[in-house]
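Researcher: Good morning. I'm working through a list of sequences from a screen, and I'd like to move beyond sequence-only analysis. For each chain I'm collecting a predicted structure so we can compare shapes side by side. This is the next one on the list. No need for commentary yet; just the structure.
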Amino acid sequence: MDLTEFEKKIGYTFKNKELLHEALSHSSYSNEAKRGLNSNERLEFLGDSVLSIVVSEHLFRHFKHLPEGELTKIRASLVCEKALFEFSKKIDLGKYILLGKGEENSGGRERPSIVSDAFEAVIAAVFLDGGMKAAEKYVLSFIPKDLAADSSKSLHDYKTALQEVIQKNPEERVEYVLAEQTGPDHDRKFVVNVELNSNVIGTGEGHSKKQAEQAAAREALRLMGYKDD
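Model: Good morning. Structure tokens for this chain:
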């Protein structure tokens, strides 16, 4: 697979092409290949952290007048699945993802969870290949130039909202626990419990762990009496 076209779109040329190949390899593809190929799941894990660091530093430096709570909301709006899926469209990322036949036939290239995960994996690949400066340049190319403090209002981030409620009691601790994972690669379902001091306070499900976590947080907030507005 010639990825030169994709490199031109993202404005970065890899020294180690295998990193980019891995970043674009969905688990359904690596499972079907049966040649010991790595999927992009580990890179996604790293990319999630690199993305958070880059966005956090950018907001910290450019919104000096905002308190921590507001910065958290803006960051959440920029790193959530919906936002990453929109960023991915700018570089036609779905077109380049390597998928297994089942995932390909079921429309995996247009599935937000798959595309947003690949977006994070590419961030990690750029970071490992070129360092933090290269990753920072890549990530910031997607951040809106007219980013405003109210940008978070267009997206519901229930995990952040729940965390803000819980933070009022410093001794309390929230944890998201994967309770169940079912279905084939192209149609997985995740069930997640959100626990407060090891007690389940909400359960949610979705086609990605992130979706399930948001759903669990939403239920917890509803059971606490908070309206979903």
